[in-house]
Amino acid sequence: MTKTFTFAVMHFSIAFGVVYAMTGSLLLGGAVALIEPVLNTVAFYFHEKFWNRWEHRRARPTGLEPPVFRA
């Protein structure tokens, strides 16, 4: 969960900086910086869960692999 939190802080800072640079508005920069990173952080969390499950399933033997013969 620490990785997700630090990602959120980084994302908040980037989102605020980009929108503020484009608009000059603290209010708009703050609003976008709060909404967009929250949604991306939630998406990132589920993205990580999906990939962890995917990698685990790919690593699990299915029983269909050819036998390995060792000399």
UniProtKB/TrEMBL annotation:
Residues 1-52 form the DUF2061 domain. This is Membrane protein. Pfam families: DUF2061. It comes from the Bacteria. InterPro entries: DUF2061_membrane (IPR018638).
